[in-house]
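Trying the structure run again after the queue cleared.
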Amino acid sequence: MESIYAALLLHKAAKNITEDNIEKILKAADIKPDNAQITKLVSGLKETDIEEILKSAASVPAAAVPATSEAPAGEEKAEKEQKKEEEEEEDEEPAGIGSLF
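Done. Tokens:
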């Protein structure tokens, strides 16, 4: 996760996102770099538009929070099914840059 933060910092500073630059940032923060993860990150970012990812992440609405702690029985069942579906989606193997998390 730290290497992703370093890549975002480099992107914000309009610097090249390279393995060496990410490693320098992590070492400056006294974090031991994971070279395998850094290599995967840099190769995944070569084909990725970071600005598009940031825009899409900013446009995702927050989950609706129920106004009361008690929900009608039908809503509880729907919420349980939705949570179950979300858990199943999380179990799938992520592709691309998502596989680093």
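The longest helix spans residues 73-91. Worth checking whether this holds up in the mutant runs.
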